[in-house]
Amino acid sequence: MAALYNTAAPKKAANLSVNSDLLQKSRALNINLSATLERALREELAKYEASQWVEENRAAITSYNEFVEQHGCFGDEFREL
Q: Which one-letter DSSP state was computed for residue 11?
């Protein structure tokens, strides 16, 4: 699977607005805002990529599921429950 993004890309400053109470409490706990935002963005990007993959492969997944429903799965006769 291809990387979600270039981890070696340089950092770039960004201005954003955050709830003031959330910011104050985060700073009091020494939470690294940049690292937290990057982690959240990675998670969102991964969710989006997974969703796109499912959409792009929906026809093949449906076809495979129908085949298995009709013919069973390879090795079913050897399966032990």
A: P
CA distance 64 to 68: 6
Which residue has tokens 């910011």? 23
pTM, rounded to two decimals: 0.73
d(CA 47, CA 63): 24
Contacts of 42 (CB under 8 A, 6+ apart): 4, 5
What are 23's two structure tokens? Answer: 């910011």
Q: What is the pLDDT along the chain (81 residues), one digit of tens a residue?
A: 678 999 999 999 999 999 999 999 999 999 999 999 999 999 999 999 999 999 999 999 999 999 999 998 888 777 776
DSSP assignment of 12-54: --------HHHHHHHHHTT--HHHHHHHHHHHHHHHHHHHHHH
Tell which residue, 40, 20, 38, 16, has the closest CA to residue 28: 20
